[in-house]
Write a structure and sequence with these properties.
heterodimer; A: Porin; two-stranded antiparallel sheet; 3 helices; 46% strand
């Protein structure tokens, strides 16, 4: 296979540069793992660096501003009639830019919609704009980041088993689209003197149930701006306990979507591994359709491995 | 309405008493709460042992007089936690000017200090209070700009 000369030239020069600084190259490829434990955040259910439900202004990975880090995650959520698992990978570059990809798979395990499945892809990007949540202990300025998540609903499957053959897209439930972009601003700060982490988010979104029920709807088709927040207490260097709340638009008449919330415990024994366990409550889901009005709540478990 | 008044009065009085108590009984300084001189000296002993064994940063102390360093760090921590000390060393910017320390190395030292506090059993929430006072020094110790790798500086550094 012939390589164009320009690309070959760039490749050779890059290779020479990297090989002439072997120690730099080694640490660059592996990442300096220089951040303090817990300060890289975890993977939220859309794959962005954060808690469980809500993104943080932290850039994922343990690489400091001179390096990078990356991780992969797997999250399992079991609610009363809905099971969701997500898996994906994310990278943080120079403690400045975060990129992530996550695949979400929803299984409806109860109600008349039993056996229905939904898939979704989320591609995320986040940029730290200013501030440092950890070092900035002598002033009020938080760490500020802006992010976007391109969400693509990959369709509904197995609807025939639920007695709804032909249901393949959330647009058939009233959603105006099967893809959209969320935009958010997040401000996070660690108050080390109180062992507290506080985070506030404003998100512009059209997503119904995170996009699993499409985007926009018969009640509202445009963007809503919704607040989210996190409070966490640093119990030890390796354990944080917290709570999150995330409000959502109410675009569909087939779903009385309300705010989701959780209480969590996050454990990072080493920089290469973390576990988040939470009690998650999403409120009722698709109550007008299923007749089931009870809150969909249950266990959230997320594993993250990386550097 | 008449039900509310006794309750409101009781609440108000308790709050006033609490505030008065806080003013009358001055809170112990952070220095005292972490254990004062014996605890801080013990922390410094552990800390030096830990950093000497930490390959991420021990090379930066290769030519350092460790007992003098220990004394200066003790003075600094004692002073910032409102202990009865005066820091007699150079300011942070001058002291670190030629060392090309990056965030990874700054954090490594912070981790080692956390570990030292652990070894002498200072409670974590008090450790964080000390670190909250040290964290702002990052901007004087770590120069802005890209500093790739956490490599031993060249032999002629200093």
């Amino acid at each position: 296979m012939k390589f164009p000369p320009r690309i070959t030239g760039v490749a050779i020069i890059t290779g020479l540069l990297l090989s002439s600084y072997p120690s730099y190259a080694q640490s660059f490829f592996v990442g300096d793992q220089g951040k303090l434990l817990l300060t890289s955040g975890f993977s939220d259910l859309e794959g962005s660096g954060g808690g469980g439900l809500v993104p943080l202004a932290f850039i994922t990975g343990y690489g400091t501003q001179d390096s990078w880090g990356a991780n992969a995650h797997f999250t399992d959520i079991k609610l009363r009639d809905y099971s969701l698992y997500t898996f994906g990978a994310a990278a943080g570059l120079f403690d400045r830019v975060e990129l992530s990809y996550t695949r979400q798979h929803l299984d409806i395990t109860g109600t008349v919609l039993d056996h229905l499945t939904v898939n979704e892809d989320v591609i995320g990007a986040k940029v730290k704009i200013l501030g440092d949540a950890v070092y900035g202990q002598d002033h009020w300025l938080p760490q500020l980041a802006v992010g976007a998540q391109y969400k693509h609903n990959d369709g509904i499957s197995n609807a025939a088993a639920a007695g709804l053959p032909g249901l393949t897209s959330p647009t058939q439930l009233g959603a105006t689209s099967d893809h959209s972009v969320d935009y958010y601003v997040t401000a996070s700060k660690v108050f080390l003197g109180e062992s507290l982490v506080i985070n506030a988010v404003l998100r512009a979104t059209k997503a119904n149930q995170f996009g699993l029920l499409g985007f926009g709807g018969n009640r509202k088709s445009g963007y809503s701006v919704d607040p989210e927040g996190t409070v966490a207490y640093l119990l030890t260097r390796k354990i944080a306990l917290g709570a999150e709340i995330r409000s959502a638009p109410h675009n569909l008449s087939v779903d009385n979507e309300s705010a989701a919330w959780d209480v969590f415990a996050a454990w990072a024994p080493i920089k290469n591994f973390s576990l988040v366990a939470a009690y998650l409550n999403l409120g009722s889901i698709l109550a007008p359709v299923t007749g089931v009005t009870r809150h969909q709540d249950g266990l959230y478990l997320s594993l993250q491995a990386g550097f | 309405m008449s039900m509310l008044q006794p309750r409101a009065i009781a609440f108000g009085t308790s709050l006033a008493l609490l505030l008065a108590a806080r003013l009358v009984f001055a809170e112990a300084t952070l220095y005292e709460r972490i254990g004062g001189e014996p605890k801080l000296r013990a922390t410094m002993d552990e800390f030096v042992t830990i950093i000497v064994a930490d390959d991420r940063i021990n090379f930066a102390f290769a030519d350092t007089d460790l007992s003098k360093f220990k004394q200066l760090l003790f003075e600094q921590l004692c002073a910032i936690t409102q202990g009865p000390c005066r820091y007699t060393g150079r300011d942070m910017r001058t002291a670190h000017a030629k060392l090309n320390i990056n965030n990874a190395q700054f954090n490594a030292l912070a981790e080692d200090l956390y570990r030292a506090f652990d070894r002498v059993h200072v409670p974590y929430r008090l450790q964080n209070k000390v670190m909250a006072l040290l964290a702002p020094m990052q901007k004087d110790i770590v120069k802005p700009g890209f500093a790739p790798g956490t490599q031993p500086p060249p032999a002629n550094f200093r």
